Amino acid sequence: MSADLLQVVTGPPLTEPAASDLLLGMAVLRYTPSNSVCYVRDGMTLGVGAGQQSRVDCTRLAGAKVDTWWLRRHPAIRDLPLVPGLARQDKINWQVRLIEADLTPHERSHLAQVLTRPATELDPGQRAEWNARLTGVAFASDGHLPFRDNVDQARRHGVTCIAEPGGSVRSGQVAAACEEYGITLARTGLRLFHH
Fold first, then answer.
1. 67-120, pLDDT tens digit by residue?
2. What is the pLDDT of residues 150-189, one digit of tens each?
3. pLDDT at 190 > cutoff 80
4. Measured between alpha carbons, how far is 128 from 136 in angstroms, rounded to an integer?
5. How far is 119 from 80, CA to CA, in rounded Å?
6. pLDDT at 161
7. What is the rounded distance in angstroms from the CA atom of residue 115 to the CA atom of residue 94?
8. CATH second-level architecture of 3-65+135-187?
9. Where in the sequence of the chain do the CATH 3.40.140.20 domains occur?
10. Which residue, among 84, 59, 31, has the nearest Cα to 137 in the 3D structure?
């Protein structure tokens, strides 16, 4: 695949890094179950939503993974005061559990044992403020986006460019939503479905 595949329909021209991220997203989607989307930033796959009956459900599920990835970079989470010597994966697991904000009483008790001081938990306002800072995320879809709701959801997760095959009866509405948000929309004409 090359950047020639990405035909910009609306929005600013694709930068070379954005085009690379969209192509990576498409490569990832080639190997996922049908009805999939992929979020990519700086050459890293951040979230994949695959095999759901509704494409917007895929967009939401993968977007939640993007949010977790981004919230792990918040200073309160990144600098979680964990005891020295804790395994790297245990540190990551505690960060994710705090981000998910649904610790059971048993987990809270265990967390207290591995902290050097009480952790700062993010409230919904702090989460929203931090998430609003995320930008530069590429979003690829293995099939056409049938409704603008996918664009609305993707934008919530820092998306600034989208690649999709096009061809939906509502492709004009999808393009209008991208234009509304200042998102670059590239059509590929290439469906990556397995059926």
1. 999 999 999 999 999 999 999 999 999 999 999 999 999 999 999 999 999 998
2. 999 999 999 999 999 998 889 999 999 999 999 999 999 8
3. no
4. 17
5. 6
6. 98
7. 10
8. 3-Layer(aba) Sandwich (3.40)
9. 3-65+135-187
10. 59
Q: Give 73-82's long-range contacts (Cβ < 8 A, gap of 24+).
A: 74/122, 74/126, 74/130, 76/119, 76/120, 76/121, 76/122, 76/126, 77/122, 80/115, 80/119, 81/115, 81/116, 81/117, 81/119, 82/114, 82/115, 82/116
Distance CA 107, CA 64 (A): 22
Exposure on the CB side of residue 166, measured as CA atoms within 13 A: 13
Helix axes 55-71 and 124-131, enclosed angle (nearest 10): 100
Task: Indicate the SS3 state at residue 167.
Answer: coil
The position carrying tokens 């994710």 is 96
